[in-house]
Write a structure and sequence with these properties.
heterodimer, A: 490 residues, alpha+beta, Ubiquitin-like (UB roll), Enolase-like, domain 1, 5-stranded mixed sheet, 5-stranded antiparallel sheet, 18 helices, 20 strands, B: alpha+beta, Aldehyde Oxidoreductase, domain 4, Aldehyde Oxidoreductase, domain 3, 3 domains, 8-stranded mixed sheet, FAD (chain A), xanthine dehydrogenase activity (chain A)
Chain lengths: 490, 778
C-alpha cells in the first residue's frame, strides 16, 4: 500500500492516509489523538514544551532523538517511532525514574513546560550515563522554563543518572527489538507515497532517483528535511506550500564519508549527526554547531537545509565558507558543484535551479598547520540566532606571513559573505599584531551591517573587528574567551 | 485570630512548615495536569482568532471584512457592533481600553475584530484577509519621544516628599546628577493567554480563563455582555505561569470568547498564537530615572530627588499603582533623610503595560541601587560599604522613616547582609577579583552584594481581603476552595497545608478544587505576593469555624470540657477516648452540625492616602540579599554568571521546598530582565521581539554556574501572618539586581573603578561592550 505513511505512536501501529502536508505532529497529537500532554508554547521550535522523542533507524541502530512536535510535519514520520510523555509512566501509574526525579527535586512549578523537560531528560538519560553538567545544559538548550530557574531540573537530571531500572520497566527498552523489526518492515518498501488532501499534496519519495523525478515533475515543490525553518512558514506565516516533498527518510542523503577530497556530508545529515565528525576535525566548528538552536532543532535540522534556504544569519554557511567547502547540487539532469560562497547570490536568492536540490557538501580535511576559528555572537549564549557569526581560516608560510586567509561572516550582509578587503589587506603580510591592527578598519569596506533587534550596526561593526583581534590572540597562544565549562569537564 | 498557637505535629503528612512537593507534581510530569487547552471541548466548539491593527496610531477610515467572512471555515466575524454591553475592558474604570477598536487604533496590534472559525486554523488564516483603511496619526513608542511630544499621562502622577530636599541638595558636600534607562520585560508565561466560554440558559455563561483574577474576569464579562455579575461564572484550575501577566490581560480573551459564545450560542475557545499574545498584551513598564543625589565624603546620603518616567502604553491599566510602587521602592533598603520622588506615567502608542512580578518595585529598586553605585564611585569605596552606611536603622535610631512616612519596624537587613557577606566570602573574593582584573586584558570580573526590602500588601487597601470555603463531607474528606489562583507558585499546596494542619489530618484528605467565582465571590487578584497571606488566613478561618463546631459537638456528645478535646493526628481525643476524625465527622452530621464554613480575612493595620503621600501601605517587609560574581568579555560584551549566593527571608516558611523554588526562579527571572531580555520596537511601532526566537529569557545554561540558595531560617514575621510566614512571590525577583551590579563592576575595571559605568538595563552584551568602550575613551 503506497497511499499511507506508517509509523508507531507510543504502543500503537499507525497507517495514516488523510493529512494535509502541513499538519504538524503536535496538532495531530493534541487535536486528533487527544494526547494533550505535549503542549504548545510557541509553535516555532524555541520553547520545547512540545518535545517528544522520535526513534528512527540509523545504520543498523534504532536511535531516539528529542524533537519539537510543533514544527515537525506528520508527513515526515514515515518509518519512525513517536514517543510522547503519555508513554512513560507504568500501567499502574508508577512514574518513570526520570519523572520521579523531577517530582523529588521539585522540578515543576506551573508544570506547563514540564512534559517537554521530561522528554528531553528522558532522551538524555537513555543515551548518556552520568552526564556532566555541560551535557545536561546542552540537552536542555531547547527547553524554556519561566518558573524554576532550572536548578531543580538540572538536579533531577543528575539524580536520575545513576538509576538504570530493569529494561522491563522502560517502555522503549522493553519493546526495542519489536519496534526495530516493525520499522525495518516499513522501510523495506521504497515506493513513493503520495497523500492528497484537497488541492494539497505530500510526496514522500522512495529513493533519491524518485526525488529527482518528483522535482522534475514539480519544480516549484517545497523540499522539507528537518522543517526547522519551513515549519515556521506554516505555523507563523501560514504560507501556502504545495506540494511538499519530504526527504528526511532518504538514507542516501544521510551519508558521511571521508576520502582524500575531504569530508563529504549528505544534505539530509542532521546537525547532531554531523557534529561528531566535524567536531573531531574542527573543534571550533563543533562548539559552533552546539550553539545552533536547541538539541531538538539540531536533531531535526540539517546543514543542507541551513545552506539551501540561504538565510543571511545561518551559522554553518560562513563557517563552511571559511573552510573552503564545496557544494553539490543535483537534479534529474545531473549534478554540479561550486564553492559554497558562490551559491549565495544576494539576499533571498541562491544559485539553485528549478528541479535541483542540495545533494551534499564537501569540507576539506584539516591542514595541521592552519588555524581555524568560528565565533558566534548572540544576546543569549545558547539557542539564539546570531547577531553576527565570524569565522577565520589562516595559514602562514615559513616566514610567518599570511599565505592563505579566508574570513567569512554571517549577520553582516544580505548573505553569508567573505571579508575580501580584510583578506587582501592581510595577504602576504607578517601575522603580527601590527598587521592585524592595521587591517581592522577594512571590515568597514567589506560590510555595511544593519541595525535590528539583535544588535545595532555599530555593535556589529565593532565586534567583527574585535573578533579578528580574538583570532589573533588565539593564534598567538593567548586565548582569551569566556567558557562556562572547562573542556575537560565537557 | 491568633495563629501563633498552632504547632506542627509531624505525625500527619503535610503540615505547615514542611517541605511538601507541589500538589500537581505527579500530574505535571505525566502530562495529565489539565490546562484550559486540554479540557475536552463541548460538541460544536468554535475557535477565535484576532484581527489586529497594523498601525501604531491611526484613524480607522473603513473596515472591509468581506474576504474574511467568505474564507473557508469561517462561522462569524465579531466587531464592536456585536458587543451587547459596553465596549470596554479597562480595569481602572477609566473607560480607556476598548475591547475592540472602532474609530481609531492606538498601538500596533490593537484588536479590531475577531474571526470565529470551525477550527483555530480556519480562524487564523481568515483573520489576515481584512482590508482596513487608515489615516495615520503621529505616534511615539518610547519614553524619550513621549517626553519630546509632551505625551499625556495615563493617570495622575504621585509624589512622595519628606524633609527639605530642595535646600538639602544644595547644601550637601557632594552631588551627582544622572539618568538611567531600565527596560521592560515580557512575562513569557509558557501557557499563553486562553479562555473558553460555554453559554448557558438565560444570560448564564461559564468562562474558563487562564487568569490570576477570576473576579475581575467575571465583572468584565458581565460588563461587555450587559448582564449582572451573577450570570457569569469564571473558573480556573491552574495557569501555565502568570507572573502578573494574567492579572488583567486575560480579560480581553475571556470577554471576546464570551461575546462570541453568547451571540452564536456555541462554546468558543480563544487561544492566541504566541506572537499575537506578545504583540497584544502588556508587559513590565520600562522607566527612565532622572536623579539628583546629595551626600557627604563618607558616602552618607543627605537628599535624593528623582523622577521615574514610565512607558505605560495606550491606556492606564495598572500603570497607576505600578508607577506608585516604583516610588515606594526607590529607597531600596536605604534611609533618605530628605527626599522628593515623582512618577510620570506616560501614554505611548504601545500595548498597555501591566503588572509583572514586583509591580514597579524592581524598577524603583534598580534606581535606588544605581544611586548607591554613583556615590560609591565618587567617594571611591566598595559599594557594599555605602549600602551598609545607608541602611535603615532600628526603631529609635531616627533612621526608620520611609519616603511615604511609614516606619520600618521589622528591619533585619543588616543582619541578613552581614551573614551573606560572611558566607559568600565577599570581601576576599572581591579582592581576588580586583587582582585578577589587573592581569587580565580581555576577560574582566565583577562581584556585587545587593539587598532587597519589599513591602507586602496591595497599596489599594480594599484588595487586602480574601475568602475561602471549606466543606467536610460525611466520610471525613475535606473540600477546600479559596479565592487565590494557582500559577505554579504552590499556593494551593500551602493553603491545603494550613487546612490539614488546622484539623491535624493528612493533606491527602484535603481536596484542592479549582478557583471559581461561584464558590468564593469578590476576590482579589492573586498578586502582590499576597496569595498565601490572604487565602491561607481565610482558609484557616473557615477551618477553624468547623473545628470549633466539632469541638462543641464533642463536648455535648461526650459530656466533656473543651480542654479535653484535642485534635491528634487523624483522630480526636475526647476525654479518655480517641475517635478517628471521620467517625467524629459522621457523628456530627447525624447531630445536624453544619460541616461547611466560609472564611474571611482582611489585613490589619494598613491604610494609605495617595494624595498626601502618607500612610502605612505595607503590613510588613520581606528582606533578602544576593551576591553575584560575573565574567565579561571586553571584546564582545558577552558574559557569564559564575556564582550567586542568596540568603532570603520568608519569615517562618510554610513550605521551604516551595519557597526555595520561588527564590531560585525569581532570581533567574530577575536576572533575565536585567541581562538578555530586551523588547525592541521598530520605527513603525511594531514590536519585533514577539516570540522566543527573538526575545531571550534565561536558559539552564544562563543560571549561575554555582548557585547557593538559603532561607534565613531564624526569621519569623513580627506581624501575625499565617504561621508567621512571609510572602515570597515577588521579593526575590529583585535579587537579580546583583548580576547587573556585578556586570557594572566588571566594566568599571576598565577605568580602574573611578567612573560609574552607568550601565543601563537590560545589560545585553551590546550594552556591556558599549559601556566598556565608553570607559576606554575616558
Amino acid at each position: 500500500m503506497t497511499s499511507a505513511i506508517r509509523f508507531i505512536l507510543n504502543g500503537e501501529d499507525v497507517a495514516l492516509d488523510d493529512f494535509a502536508p502541513t499538519e504538524t505532529l503536535l496538532d495531530y497529537l493534541r487535536l486528533r489523538r487527544r494526547l494533550t500532554g505535549s503542549k504548545e508554547g510557541c509553535a516555532e521550535g524555541d520553547c520545547g514544551a512540545c518535545t517528544v522523542l522520535v526513534g528512527r533507524l540509523i545504520g543498523g541502530a534504532l536511535r531516539y532523538e528529542s524533537v519539537n512536535a510543533c514544527i515537525r510535519f506528520v508527513g515526515s514520520l514515515h518509518g519512525t517511532h513517536v514517543v510522547t510523555v503519555e508513554h512513560l509512566a507504568g500501567k499502574n501509574g508508577e512514574l518513570h525514574p526520570v519523572q520521579q526525579a523531577m517530582v523529588d527535586c521539585h522540578g515543576s512549578q506551573c508544570g506547563f513546560c514540564t512534559p517537554g523537560f521530561v522528554m528531553s531528560l528522558y532522551g538524555l538519560w537513555m543515551t548518556t550515563e552520568n552526564p556532566t553538567r555541560a551535557e545536561i545544559e546542552t540537552a536542555l538548550q531547547g527547553n524554556l522554563c519561566r518558573c524554576t530557574g532550572y536548578e531543580p531540573i538540572v538536579k533531577a537530571a543528575e539524580q536520575v543518572a545513576m538509576q538504570r531500572p530493569s529494561a522491563l520497566f522502560d517502555p522503549i527498552e522493553r519493546d526495542r527489538a519489536e519496534i526495530m523489526a516493525k520499522l525495518w518492515t516499513i522501510r523495506s518498501s521504497s515506493e513513493t507515497i503520495r497523500i492528497s488532501k484537497g488541492e494539497n499534496q505530500a510526496i514522500i519519495p522512495g529513493t533519491l532517483s524518485d526525488l529527482e523525478e518528483v522535482l522534475a515533475e514539480h519544480p516549484g515543490a517545497t523540499i522539507v528535511a528537518g522543517a526547522t525553518d519551513v515549519g515556521l512558514w506554516v505555523t507563523k506565516q501560514m504560507r501556502p506550500i504545495n506540494p511538499v516533498v519530504f526527504i528526511n527518510h532518504l538514507t542516501d542523503l544521510q551519508t558521511i564519508t571521508e576520502d582524500e577530497t575531504g569530508i563529504v556530508i549528505g544534505a539530509g545529515v542532521t546537525y547532531t549527526q554531523a557534529f561528531e565528525v566535524l567536531e573531531s576535525h574542527y573543534p571550533a566548528l563543533g562548539r559552533l554547531i552546539d550553539r545552533i538552536g536547541g538539541q531538538q532543532v539540531r536533531n531535526m535540522g540539517t546543514i543542507g537545509g541551513n545552506i539551501a534556504n540561504g538565510s543571511p544569519i545561518g551559522d554553518t554557511p560562513p563557517a563552511l565558507i571559511a573552510l573552503g567547502t564545496e557544494l553539490t547540487l543535483r537534479s534529474a539532469t545531473g549534478s554540479r558543484s561550486m564553492p559554497l560562497e558562490q551559491y549565495f547570490i544576494e539576499y533571498g536568492k541562491q544559485d539553485r535551479q528549478p528541479g535541483e536540490f542540495v545533494e551534499k557538501f564537501t569540507v576539506p580535511l584539516p591542514d595541521e598547520e592552519a588555524y581555524y576559528a568560528a565565533y558566534k555572537i548572540s544576546k543569549r549564549r545558547d539557542e539564539d540566532i546570531s547577531a553576527l557569526c565570524g569565522t577565520f581560516y589562516l595559514k602562514l608560510d615559513g616566514e610567518g606571513c599570511v599565505e592563505t586567509c579566508r574570513i567569512a561572516f554571517g549577520g553582516m550582509a544580505g548573505t553569508p559573505k567573505r571579508a575580501n578587503h580584510v583578506e587582501n589587506g592581510l595577504a602576504g603580510r607578517p601575522w603580527t599584531w601590527n598587521t592585524v591592527a592595521s587591517v581592522r578598519d577594512l571590515f568597514d569596506e567589506d560590510y555595511t551591517p544593519l541595525t535590528d533587534w539583535r544588535a545595532t550596526a555599530e555593535y556589529r561593526a565593532l565586534t567583527a573587528k574585535n573578533l579578528l583581534t580574538r583570532f589573533f590572540l588565539e593564534t598567538a597562544g593567548q586565548p582569551q574567551e569566556l567558557s562556562r565549562f572547562e573542556p575537560e569537564e565537557a | 485570630m491568633d495563629t501563633t498557637t498552632f504547632e506542627a505535629k509531624h505525625t500527619i503528612n503535610g503540615p505547615m512548615h514542611t517541605s511538601l512537593r507541589h500538589d500537581s507534581a505527579h500530574k505535571h510530569v505525566t502530562g495529565t495536569a489539565e490546562y484550559i487547552d486540554d479540557i475536552p471541548e463541548p460538541a460544536g466548539t468554535l475557535h477565535a482568532a484576532l484581527g489586529m491593527a497594523d498601525r501604531a496610531h491611526a484613524e480607522i477610515l473603513s473596515i472591509d471584512l468581506t474576504a474574511v467572512r467568505a474564507a473557508p471555515g469561517v462561522v462569524d466575524v465579531i466587531t464592536a457592533a456585536d458587543i451587547p454591553g459596553i465596549n470596554d475592558v479597562a480595569s481602572t474604570g477609566q473607560h480607556d481600553e476598548p475591547l475592540l477598536a472602532t474609530d481609531k487604533v492606538e498601538f500596533h496590534g490593537q484588536p479590531i475584530f475577531v474571526v470565529i472559525g470551525e477550527t483555530r486554523e480556519h480562524a487564523r488564516r481568515a483573520a489576515r484577509l481584512a482590508k482596513i483603511e487608515y489615516r495615520d496619526l503621529p505616534h511615539w513608542t518610547d519614553i524619550d519621544s513621549a517626553l519630546a511630544n509632551d505625551a499625556p499621562l495615563v493617570v495622575k502622577p504621585m509624589t512622595l516628599k519628606r524633609g527639605e530636599p530642595e535646600t538639602e541638595i544644595e547644601k550637601a558636600p557632594l552631588r551627582v546628577q544622572g539618568q538611567m534607562y531600565i527596560g521592560g520585560q515580557e512575562h513569557f508565561y509558557l501557557e499563553s493567554q486562553i479562555a473558553m466560554a460555554i453559554p448557558g440558559e438565560d444570560e448564564d455563561i461559564l468562562v474558563w480563563s487562564s487568569t490570576q483574577h477570576p473576579s475581575e474576569v467575571q465583572h468584565m464579562v458581565a460588563h461587555v455582555l450587559g448582564c449582572a455579575n451573577n450570570a457569569v461564572e469564571v473558573k480556573t484550575r491552574r495557569m501555565g505561569g502568570g507572573f502578573g501577566g494574567k492579572e488583567t490581560q486575560g480579560n480581553l480573551f475571556a470577554c471576546l470568547a464570551a461575546v462570541a459564545a453568547k451571540k452564536l450560542n456555541r462554546a468558543v475557545k480563544f487561544r492566541p498564537d504566541r506572537d499575537e499574545d506578545m504583540a497584544v498584551t502588556g508587559k513590565r513598564h520600562d522607566f527612565r530615572v532622572d536623579y539628583d543625589l546629595a551626600f557627604d565624603e563618607e558616602g552618607r546620603i543627605h537628599a535624593v530627588d528623582a523622577t521615574f518616567a514610565a512607558r505605560c502604553g495606550f491606556s492606564a491599566d495598572l500603570s497607576g499603582p505600578v508607577t506608585d510602587r516604583a516610588l515606594f521602592h526607590a529607597d531600596s533598603s536605604y534611609f533618605y533623610p530628605h527626599v522628593h520622588l515623582t512618577s510620570k506615567p506616560l501614554k505611548t502608542h504601545t500595548c498597555s503595560n501591566t503588572a509583572f512580578r514586583g509591580f514597579g518595585g524592581p524598577q524603583g529598586m534598580v534606581g535606588g541601587e544605581r544611586f548607591i553605585e554613583e556615590i560609591a564611585y565618587v567617594v571611591g569605596k566598595d559599594p557594599l560599604d555605602i549600602r551598609k552606611l545607608n541602611f535603615y536603622g532600628q526603631p529609635g535610631s531616627g533612621r526608620t522613616l520611609t519616603p511615604y512616612h511609614q516606619e520600618v519596624e521589622d528591619n533585619i537587613i543588616l543582619k541578613l547582609v552581614e551573614e551573606l557577606e560572611a558566607s559568600s566570602d565577599y570581601r576576599a573574593r572581591r579582592q581576588a577579583i580586583i587582582e585578577f582584573n589587573e592581569n587580565s586584558p580581555v576577560i574582566r570580573k565583577g562581584i556585587a552584594l545587593t539587598p532587597v526590602k519589599f513591602g507586602i500588601s496591595f497599596t489599594m487597601t480594599a484588595y487586602n481581603q480574601a475568602g475561602a470555603l471549606v466543606h467536610i463531607y460525611q466520610d471525613g474528606s475535606i473540600h477546600l476552595n479559596h479565592g487565590g489562583t494557582e500559577m505554579g507558585q504552590g499556593l494551593y499546596t500551602k493553603v491545603a497545608q494550613v487546612v490539614a494542619d488546622t484539623f491535624n489530618v493528612d493533606i491527602d484528605r484535603v481536596k484542592i478544587t479549582a478557583t471559581t467565582t461561584g464558590k468564593v465571590p469578590n476576590t482579589s487578584a492573586t498578586a502582590a505576593s499576597s496569595g498565601s497571606d490572604l487565602n491561607g488566613m481565610a482558609a484557616y478561618d473557615a477551618a477553624r469555624q468547623i473545628k470549633e463546631r466539632l469541638i462543641d459537638f464533642a463536648c455535648r456528645q461526650w459530656k466533656v470540657e473543651k480542654e479535653q478535646v484535642e485534635f491528634l493526628a487523624n483522630r480526636v481525643r475526647v476525654g479518655e477516648d480517641e475517635v478517628p476524625f471521620d467517625t467524629l465527622v459522621r457523628a456530627a452530621y447525624y447531630d445536624r452540625v453544619q460541616l461547611s464554613a466560609a472564611g474571611f480575612y482582611k489585613t490589619p493595620k494598613i491604610h494609605w492616602d495617595r494624595a498626601a503621600g502618607k500612610g502605612r501601605p505595607f503590613y510588613y517587609f520581606a528582606y533578602g540579599a544576593a551576591c553575584s560574581e560575573v565574567s565579561i568579555d571586553t571584546l564582545t560584551g558577552e558574559y557569564l554568571v559564575d556564582r550567586t549566593d542568596i540568603l532570603h527571608d520568608v519569615g517562618k516558611s510554610l513550605n521551604p521546598a516551595i519557597d526555595i523554588g520561588q527564590v531560585e526562579g525569581a532570581f533567574v527571572q530577575g536576572m533575565g530582565w536585567l541581562t538578555t531580555e530586551e523588547l525592541w520596537w521598530d520605527t513603525k511601532g511594531r514590536l519585533r521581539t514577539h516570540a522566543p526566537s527573538t526575545y531571550k529569557i534565561p536558559l539552564a545554561s544562563d543560571r549561575p554556574k554555582i548557585f547557593n540558595v538559603k532561607l534565613a531560617e531564624w526569621s519569623e514575621n513580627k506581624e501575625a501572618t499565617i504561621g508567621r510566614s512571609k510572602a515570597v512571590g515577588e521579593p526575590p525577583f529583585m535579587l537579580g539586581i546583583s548580576v547587573l551590579e556585578a556586570l557594572s563592576m566588571a566594566v568599571a575595571s576598565i577605568a580602574d573603578y573611578t567612573v560609574c559605568p552607568r550601565l543601563d538595563a537590560p545589560a545585553t552584551p551590546e550594552r556591556v561592550l558599549m559601556a566598556v568602550e565608553r570607559l576606554k575613551a575616558m
